[in-house]
Amino acid sequence: MNDKKIATIAVRAGINSDEHHGAVIPAIHLSSTYALKGFNEKRQFDYSRTGNPTRATFAQAIAELEQGSVGIVTCTGMASVHLICQLLSTDDTVVIPHDCYGGSYRLFTHLAKRGQFNLIVVDQNDEQALHEALLQKPKLVLLESPSNPLLRLVDIEKITKACHQVGALVAVDNTFLSPALQQPLLLGADIVFHSTTKYINGHSDVVGGVLVTKDKALGEELAWWANCIGITGSPFDSYLALRGLKTLPIRMRQHQENANAVAQFLKAHEAVKAVYYPGFSDHPGHEIAKRQQYDFGAMMSFEVQGGEEAVKKLFANLTLFTLAQSLGGVESLISHPSTMTHAGMELAAQLEAGITQSLVRISVGIEDSDDIIEDLAAGLAASQL
Ligand SMILES: *Cc1c(COP(=O)(O)O)cnc(C)c1O
């Protein structure tokens, strides 16, 4: 445990750890293998799939930021999701949210189809449906709050309590907020994971993942599997993500300030039918957000008047926003969930989850908010012509 504040842990990660040269910033260790001191005299590291100093520094930093005991760095966010599946046997049941990240939905549904476990997909805000799912005594319940792309929230503490009563482990995807804005382990969860591709690295130049457990033994079991199946993250990516991490809290503050301004602008715009942003007091998850998050985040989605045609015109008339999937980088991104991030989900399942053709998602960057809003204003005006 590290009792320092989040910004301090993020900035100080690995600093002053070089005993040989006194390098302030920890060196990147690219070596794939490490010499033994002598016959059967192992050092801390022997082979970089199993352990690597750069990766270990990054893993330790995230574990401290999430207030957990073991951090595991994986080569992608999906590898972290898949790693959790190693805990499951064929007769185990898993519960996932109906509106989880498209890639997670695809992974769980396809593994279940092959008989690797039983799967229940449920709207976790539907208390009756969740209750019935928990009666099946699942081994694992996956949570994602806020969800993608509609920013729905679930009460992590309340659901975790119900899950623990039936003996289920709870794993929370915290990608949308980062530990700077939400710490699920402190709300009772057993596992928290991230796509570090997003806010944690924050500069859109790494694809990676990380998973943190509250319990040491569970973390060691998962670390064993990560080495066994060979999905640990590369030293170079760990180095970049550690560098990105240092500015996470201050980046999140600016993302947040800009997101608030953008959300207000969108809400007042006549070409916008609805804005999904937990910062609004009429958002169904607003009260939960105030309780379990430190702020509302910088992701939002909205419905454009005029359907898919209007969305196409909006995209064609933006000059600052980049039309790309992913999120959480310093640059503002815009995307169309139905044809992009959630294309792996069948159309019927998309509609079930509330993903329409006129839905647009934005990741608000840290450019000047006046410029971000001016760009959206031009795009939205053109969308209605
Ligand atoms: C991107 C993302 C993932 C998957 O991470 P990759 O790094 O793309 O493999 C998982 N969950 C959420 C919420 C994401 O946004």
Tell me what the structure shows.
- By secondary structure, the protein is an alpha/beta fold.
- 37% of the residues lie in helices and 15% in strands.
- It folds into 2 domains: 6-245, Aspartate Aminotransferase, domain 2 (3-Layer(aba) Sandwich), CATH 3.40.640; 248-383, Aspartate Aminotransferase, domain 1, CATH 3.90.1150.
- It has 13 helices and 12 strands.
- Strands 1-7-6-5-4-2-3 form a 7-stranded mixed β-sheet, sandwiched between helices. Strands 8-9-12-11-10 form a 5-stranded mixed β-sheet.
- Helix 2 (53-65) runs parallel beside helix 8 (235-245), helix 9 packs parallel to helix 13 and helix 11 (307-316) packs across helix 13.
- It is globular.
- It starts with 5 loop residues before the first helix and ends with a helix.
- The site of pyridoxal-5'-phosphate (PLP) has 15 residues, from helix 3 and helix 4.
- Keywords: Pyridoxal phosphate, Transferase.
- It comes from Thalassotalea castellviae.
